[in-house]
Request: fold
Amino acid sequence: METRTNAAAGRDWAAELRAYFRRQPVVLAVLAVLAVIFFLAVTGLSRAYHAQRESLGNRWFSRGVADLNAQRFDGAVMEFRSALLYSRDNYSYQLNLAEALIGLKRTSEASTYLVNLWDRQPEDGLVNLSLARIAVQRGQTEQALRYYHNAIYAAWPSDQEMKRRDARLELVEFMLATNAKAQAQSELIALEENMGEDPSVQERVGDLFLRVPDYEHALAAHQLSIKGEGDNQGALAGAGLAAFQLGRYPLAERYLQAAVKADASDVLSAQRLKITEMVLRMDPFQRKISVAQRDKIVVEDFLTAGERLKSCGVARGVSLPSASQSSLSENWARLKPTINLGDLKRDPDLVESAMNLVFEIERQTSTTCGTPTGADLALLLIARLHEGN
Reply:
């Protein structure tokens, strides 16, 4: 009886065990499904959380960019800092925050961010450009030059390629400010080769060449600007100044007339135009004038130089002229009786003698009495124009 009871118990236990193992896969499957559901739920919540943080960061960043572009630097700093709360290592957020801090001249804070960014991407053009600007503010010439050159030869996105050009233009401005004119000229020439034909850029480059000064390149750049935008008053004035300094007075007259016509308030161009017109009117050696007109100009120039010689002695407050002025005065007085239309017509060699003395008077008096004005300045420019002839 006991044996049968044990056997029955063994059969029941075996049945239960078989039933358990039949249920086990189902339980495991259910648990697995639940685990997957919980994992997906957690993943979804995590993604939603990060997406929300990213959205908030981007929202603050967009506001910061708008304020930065409008030069509202205080607001931009606050907004970029808010953006960084949602993405502390975001490269763009840190870079734009540094730009806003530079706008507020908080260079120490900006430098901390930029140096960190430079360590991460030393070839970033904008980071190098920002570090160059900070070095300029701090008066660190060598560092500024290094970072500017890094920016020029850095990797720029294709849609920001013009920033490479702007970096070189900034470098030129900095070099001119530190009187490194030869280096500035070299940078401008390098820039000129790949700058395109944008009239406003050509005008700016022409103005920079004027400051070097390199009048040939300045004239060429301004002419390209005028070619692209014929009524560009700044380029017309710049071209007129360059041609004036090069002694190309007919060309200078044309550009200066156009500049004054475009802007009657351009006093400097008007003054240069007046002197240019006097040079062209008072030069007896210009082409395509008659002998009679030439002789008349010589007589007028000779009398003008005599007045300058006399007024120079009075201006210097001396009763007797210096040795050189005495010699010039004697030569002028000796030659004066022959400088008339009749004698000049009979003896053409007198033209050269008279003008040589006129030129010498203007050179000497400009040394002793300062740069002349009006007709005397025109004669001095004519003298320089014909030096060596």
Observations:
- The longest helix spans residues 2-69.
- Residues 291-385 form one domain.
